[in-house]
Amino acid sequence: MATKRSITITVNGQQHQSEIEPRMLLVHYLREILDLTGTHIGCNTSQCGACVVLLNGEAVKACTVLAMQAHGCEITTIEGLAPAGELHPIQTGFWEKHGLQCGFCTPGMIMSSYQLLKDNPHPTEDEICKGLEGNICRCTGYQNIVRAVQDAAEHMSTETSIPVSTQN
Amino acid sequence: MELEVHINGVIEGLDAVTNESLLSLLRREGYSSVKRGCETGECGACTVLVDGIARPSCVMLASQVGGCTVSTVESLGSAEKLHPLQSAFVEVGATGCGFCTSGMLLSAFALLQNNPSPTEEDVRDALSGNLCRCNGYARPVQAVLRAAALLRGERVEPLAHPTVSVDEVSSVATEQVASGESGKHPILQTSAAASGSGGVTTKIPVISAQMLAPSTPVVPAPRTQLHVIGTATAAHHAVKAVTGKGTFAGDFEPRKMAYARVLTSPHAHAVISSIDVSQAKALPEVLAVLTYKDVPRTPYARIERTGETSLLDQYCLDYVVRYVGDRVAVVVAETAEVAEEALRLIKVEYDVQPAILDQRRAMEPGAVRVHAERESLGIVDAERNIATRVRTEIGDVEQGFASSDHVIETEYLVPAIQQAPIEKYTVTTYFDADDYLVVRTNSQIPNYLRRTLAQLTGLPMRRIRVEQPEIGGHLGLRQHIEGEDLCALLTLATRRPVRLEYTREDEFRSNHVHQQYILRMKTGVRRDGKILASQMVVFADTGAYGTHALTAQSHTVHALALYPCANMRFLAEVLYTNHAPASLSQTYELQHEFFALESHLDDVARQLEMDALALRRLNWLQAGARYPLPLAVGASRGMNTIIDSKGLSTCLQLVEEKIGWKTKRNQRKNDRYRRGVGIALGFYGEPGVLPGTSGASIKLNEEGSFELFAGRSENGSQLTTYLTQIAAEVLGVTTEDILLHAADTSSTPFENSANDVVSFYLNGSAVKKAAEQMLRQILSVAGRILNVLPESLKINHGIIKGAHGMQTTLEQVAQHSLYVENRQLMTTSFWKGQTFPMTFAAQGVEVEVDVETGGVRVLNVVTAIDAGNPINPMLSEAQIEGDVAQALGLSLSEEFFYNQDGVPLLKSWSDAHVFSATEMPELQTYLVESHEGSELFGSKAVAGLAFYGVAPALANAILNAADIRIRYLAFTPERILRAIHAYMSRKSA
């Protein structure tokens, strides 16, 4: 049994202190230790993007980050994107524009879209496709996902405040 | 701390907290076969083997087993390869509800390791630390002896094959009984399930009414050949039970569960003048605290039956507390320990009120009102604390008494007891991914729960799903909302899964209790013994709330009807007191009525100097007569029931013979130890049309098996086995082909049976009807396959046969309908309340009274039940033995005491004095087969009936032995001795 290390991570605004094995991946830490199962595992090789979360506000693939590496950092998962009982404009966009079918890639898509819109609040269709190229979807053909992000961009820019739980 | 433990042969490194019990560690690690029944080392449900020695894991620290070998029942054997002990438990029907089974198996295993050839006494001793409330220990003992013989390499008598028909079996005569009445020697037959089992005396003779009738030749009645009904099919959940896989309410844990604890009242009656929860809320890891300030004051009932007058007198949380143990506040926290700590930080000031602690005081002028609030609805007379009242009368009772030669009046008291199933009350509520509120509980009222919780939480019914796991003993204590409302409100407040699990002490203090009954009997008789007028007046304590006030007394059947006469009166006042609310029996609440009636009958016989049985035979309810009493409550439901059962006289004849009435009745001696025998009768049924319905759905699977959606979850009454047997019988398959899904409001049809008897008939009939429809569909598809008329086809063992050897299989029918006709065969059916046949019983007890100490030893209990054509004789008998064990507790030891402030004095199993394996007397149980009976293959419910006759038979036996009449249960040595002293001083005076 490897020696355990103590880490402190703030996830969705809540601080967690845990004893973990150094080799544990961030995605396993989130799913198994914190029971945040909204972050999905699609490939374990950083190709599909189903596990995207925000690390200090930047989208990362949680299957290629060690939990140790997130020590002292702030993580936002799909569960923390909007306050309980509310939806973030990106989530509303995916709902309204039918940006999902089976729903497995959706949390990763939404977290990547967040990064995209943060960097570029008014993206073109091409820029949206470029921004989401690390997220694979087998159901939708991406058409409605692009529309969902466009819808979100429209609403986020017209709203006075952006209700994102992690303010960086 | 880190521990290295060999669990079931695997070395595991485990983290344990210093003060953690071994039980907690094992359950946390997923060994859910280790059950939590008390946490005080008394019930044995958590037994494991530590280095080969059977120990209760709840009173061992996890840290004590570092380096030890721990074995749980998972290591004994698997469903594919059962250990001989496990198979013996399955084969002889020793599993009951299954909650205590794992512990029993391990205690037995440890015994057999050290003593491969145990005697029955050795086995009982080894199992004495494992309490069981379902089966009276006879079957587990039999199973252990059978397994021991097998393990020694001996040949044991094979048990019957599950598909032997009753007719075949009943042609084998094995034993002879002399009939007391006729002087003939009719033949007593041993049924399939009775065959050998290591020499234990638990046979299941099946006797037919004709056999005991004078000069009737033994001819089995011509009947349809049955294949599954009437066989000793293993219990539906037996394999799960013996491998520890039974899933009870505490065996399932959603992620991120939080734990609730309830703060309860220390006073019998008080008003909360102030309550401060700020410190409790501030405690780290406390998630929410609720008091009456946080919930609306909506009156509700813990079981609100529709279609009847509702009695709504309870509140989720209230500022008035009405019994010691009543709810004051509820806390939810990350762990149960933190929640418990938070309870201590809640500051409550009580304005203590006078309390009513005896129902005889409830109606007195100036008595305090238990329900003074205006919001409550449906109370008959809140001023005089009368929750409800029942009156039913025929003829002119006063005139009847006036014209009698003798009028005998006596008063009886049946004290409070608690049924105390081994599994504790447990509920978990959570929101699932679809945002439905899921309620997983061992209260067995899923549809009532759904409706009431919708009212209390404000959620629409569609967003509430109630799932019923298996229940570790129902016994009448799981027939109301106990804490589901609080748990659901906490899940709503925190959005977290929340579990509320009682401790054993909580069960005794806060949960419902069979409350005290006082009964006054008055009978007018002619000199020759003919009853001319009879009256029973009942004062029932319903406790602080009328949870079952309407159901307990207002069922349609009353004991008094056993001896019909022209002038009869039944009165009951159901009174509020400051005791815990009254619970219900698993079946009909008649045990107190029969204690009074059947004790009283012996008093009447004594006065007339008449044989007690002759008096009964002269007056009893006979086949062909109408049920005599008008229905009291809901009388508009009509009544014209003719009693069609002829089983009672056979039952009595048999018990009279078996208990040795003629020889032992008149052998009075003056020794210190005096023996006597007593007999009592009992019956139940539904003379009126009762409200209630139940549905069943069946679908045929591609491989020829059936999915059956019906019924209630298994609770020890073996309903699930009966339902699979019924479906298998109709559909011509074995019970393995029937996959039963019960008790989930999202998939199972509606079902609202009031008790296990109603549920037997309603669910059984619904399943039978749905299966018959399915059979018609199957035969019509088969007809199309074979190109013949469906009417010419018959199904047997899954094969559909026509004339000239043509045949097809269920699998072919299924595939033809799915892939050629493009439809799946599915049927749905329902059954609404009808009158049910009466079931009668006779019970005899032989006792030995020690006149110097007052000690009573029960030597033998004989029970004969008119079971119609029993669906499963083996399991019916196990059920009866369990009822007798509980009745012995009620009669001798389980009295539930309160102190002068209304504080219950029972806190643990050792206070409750439940019978253990070593304390049980010899049990003889006879299922008397009668061929009238129900449309359900002529079978009748037997659950709970054997609970009625034991106490009065015991009272009559004590009267016979020592010439003392005790009219107050329980027959403790103190009470007997006091009666003996009073008798002696009366004699010398």
Automatic annotation (TrEMBL), chain A:
Keyword Metal-binding: yes
Domain of life: Bacteria
Pathway, per record: Alkaloid degradation; nicotine degradation
PROSITE patterns (alphabetical): 2FE2S_FER_2
Example GO molecular function: 2 iron, 2 sulfur cluster binding
Residue span, 2Fe-2S ferredoxin-type domain: 5-81
Keywords, in A-Z order: 2Fe-2S, Iron, Iron-sulfur, Metal-binding, Oxidoreductase
Xref: Pfam families: Fer2, Fer2_2
Xref: InterPro entries: 2Fe-2S-bd (IPR002888), 2Fe-2S-bd_dom_sf (IPR036884), 2Fe-2S_ferredoxin-like_sf (IPR036010), 2Fe-2S_ferredoxin-type (IPR001041), Beta-grasp_dom_sf (IPR012675), Diverse_Oxidoreductases (IPR051452)
Gene3D superfamilies referenced in this protein's UniProt entry, alphabetically: 3.10.20.30, [2Fe-2S]-binding domain
Residues spanning the membrane: none
Name this polypeptide is given: Carbon monoxide dehydrogenase
From TrEMBL, chain B:
Domain annotation 2Fe-2S ferredoxin-type: ranges: 1-76
InterPro entries reported in the protein's UniProt record: 2Fe-2S-bd, 2Fe-2S-bd_dom_sf, 2Fe-2S_ferredoxin-like_sf, 2Fe-2S_ferredoxin-type, 2Fe2S_fd_BS, Ald_Oxase/Xan_DH_a/b, Ald_Oxase/Xan_DH_a/b_sf, Ald_Oxase/xanthine_DH-like
SUPFAM superfamilies per record: 2Fe-2S ferredoxin-like, CO dehydrogenase ISP C-domain like, CO dehydrogenase molybdoprotein N-domain-like, Molybdenum cofactor-binding domain
Entry superkingdom: Bacteria
Protein name: Xanthine dehydrogenase molybdenum-binding subunit XdhA
GO molecular function: 2 iron, 2 sulfur cluster binding; iron ion binding; oxidoreductase activity
Family label: Belongs to the xanthine dehydrogenase family.
Keywords (A to Z) from UniProt: Iron, Metal-binding, Molybdenum, Oxidoreductase
